């Protein structure tokens, strides 16, 4: 039985990778901000010394050097591929391969997480497929630009960090994957206390009792005093990356906290940044963009289509509403996951831009591993017909969206 399950898991991972690889016939490998800087890093530089192509308009010019605003972690993630380029193995950013590999890696860890719940064997595939193919992650990651690949690394890194923090506690591995996630998506660093909480908890505390946020922080402090080895193992890689990122910021922009977004030429004159890059005044608009923005009708096409710059994730992925289902196998895990989603979502809603050309609300890919955890926490031993219908509808809608964005020109007419 275990050998059979292992084979099924293997083929699920391979199939997930293959679907992502072939989903976009023209991945946007030319939006290669991080890949270009990784190549320059191998040459001892952190910027371009010649003007970038016109389509790479998010480089920041300063003193004859053009700097990327992507964080250091996203550049380091590209180093293996920059090495392949320098060796002549590849000539451009392998966007299709990266999207496929990240989907396969995420599929692997989603299945490993789901194994820890009392589900019928086939149900872990339903829930994992719902995340990979029933959400905007499918369409957006397969765009293959630097922005989307960074989100893919965050999705994969958090899924692995959750597994190695909660279910198979390996603090060093958890820290490495956490660093991969926040290195690509800086806001994920806010979740460090949650991972530390899980790594330092006692097995006897896996009860169904709820935990308040303040009690959780106090509990973390008590445990960390007794668990310095775990703390050190988890923090060593994130700490080194964090310090390196601050130094990287200082070298580029003479401030450790300046990532350079506001320095992009013309960015602050764009209408959605009328209060700066981040402001609580953007929250009402972002709530609408993410949760309530409807689909549209075009005169030249009979079916409704999403707006190409944002649309409600509840229309495209209604199975996500299952996170509000009552009950939990472990209420502490469910509460912690809700805290993680709340913290990340609040930061995302404060950002003036909802994500540019996209399906749904791509920034919320950051939260999908935690939504998966919550859904599993309150899952029933058997999938109901209603759940199956929600997941099937979500996958069908996202298949349609992937066709619209990658195989047709309907949205650009």
Q: Concise description?
A:
By secondary structure, the protein is mainly alpha-helical.
What keywords describe this structure?
3% strand; 413 residues; mainly alpha; 56% helix; two-stranded antiparallel ribbon; 17 helices; 4 strands
Any chance you could write out the topology, listing elements then pairs?
Layout: H1 2-22, H2 33-42, E1 60-62, E2 65-67, H3 72-76, H4 79-86, H5 95-114, H6 123-133, H7 137-141, H8 146-167, H9 171-184, H10 192-200, H11 213-226, H12 228-253, H13 283-292, E3 296-298, E4 301-305, H14 313-316, H15 331-349, H16 368-377, H17 385-407
Helix pairs in contact: 1-5, 2-4, 5-6, 5-8, 6-17, 8-9, 8-10, 9-12, 10-11, 15-16
Describe, in plain words, how this protein is organized in 3D.
This protein is mainly α. Helices cover 56% and strands 3% of the residues. It contains 17 helices and four strands. The protein has helices spanning 2-22, 33-42, 72-76, 79-86, 95-114, 123-133, 137-141, 146-167, 171-184, 192-200, 213-226, 228-253, 283-292, 313-316, 331-349, 368-377, 385-407, and strands spanning 60-62, 65-67, 296-298, 301-305. It has a two-stranded antiparallel sheet. A two-stranded antiparallel ribbon has the order 3-4. β3 and β4 form a beta hairpin. α8 (146-167) packs parallel to α10 (192-200) and α10 (192-200) crosses α11. The radius of gyration is 21 Å and the shape is globular. The termini are far apart. The model has no long low-confidence stretch (mean pLDDT 93).
């Amino acid at each position: 039985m275990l050998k059979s399950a292992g084979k099924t898991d293997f083929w699920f991972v391979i199939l997930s990778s293959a679907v992502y690889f072939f989903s976009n016939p023209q991945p946007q490998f030319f939006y290669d901000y991080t890949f270009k800087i990784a190549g320059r890093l191998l040459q001892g530089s952190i910027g371009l010394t010649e003007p970038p192509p016109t389509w790479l308009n998010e480089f920041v010019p300063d003193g004859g050097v053009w700097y990327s605003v992507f964080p250091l972690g996203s550049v380091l993630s590209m180093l293996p591929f920059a090495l392949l380029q320098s060796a002549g193995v590849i000539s451009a950013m392998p966007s299709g391969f990266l999207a496929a590999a990240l989907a396969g890696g995420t599929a692997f860890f989603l299945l490993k997480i789901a194994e820890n719940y009392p589900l019928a064997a086939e149900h872990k595939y339903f829930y994992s497929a719902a995340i990979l193919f029933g959400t905007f992650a499918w369409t957006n990651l397969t765009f293959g630009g630097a922005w989307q690949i960074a989100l893919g690394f965050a999705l994969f890194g958090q899924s692995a960090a959750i597994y190695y923090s909660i279910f198979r506690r390996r603090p060093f591995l958890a820290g490495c994957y956490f660093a991969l996630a926040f290195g690509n998506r800086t806001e994920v660093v806010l979740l460090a206390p949650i991972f530390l909480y899980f790594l330092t908890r006692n097995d006897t505390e896996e009860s169904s009792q709820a935990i308040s946020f303040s009690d959780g922080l106090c509990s973390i402090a008590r445990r960390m005093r007794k668990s310095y080895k775990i703390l050190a193992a988890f923090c060593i890689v994130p700490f080194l990356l964090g310090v390196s990122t601050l130094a990287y910021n200082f070298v580029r922009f003479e401030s450790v906290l300046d990532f350079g977004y506001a320095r992009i030429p013309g960015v602050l004159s764009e209408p959605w940044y009328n209060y700066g890059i981040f402001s609580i005044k953007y929250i009402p608009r972002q709530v609408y963009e993410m949760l309530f923005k409807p689909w549209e009708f075009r005169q030249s096409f009979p079916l409704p289509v999403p707006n190409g710059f944002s649309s409600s994730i509840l229309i495209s992925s209604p199975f996500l509403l299952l996170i509000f289902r009552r009950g939990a196998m472990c209420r502490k895990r469910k509460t912690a996951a809700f805290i993680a989603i709340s913290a990340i979502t609040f930061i995302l809603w404060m950002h003036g831009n909802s994500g540019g050309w996209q399906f749904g609300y791509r920034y919320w890919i950051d939260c999908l591993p935690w939504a998966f955890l919550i859904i599993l926490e309150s899952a029933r031993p058997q999938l109901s017909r209603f759940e199956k219908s929600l997941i099937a509808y979500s996958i069908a809608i996202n298949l349609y969206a992937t066709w619209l964005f990658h195989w047709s020109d309907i949205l650009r007419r």
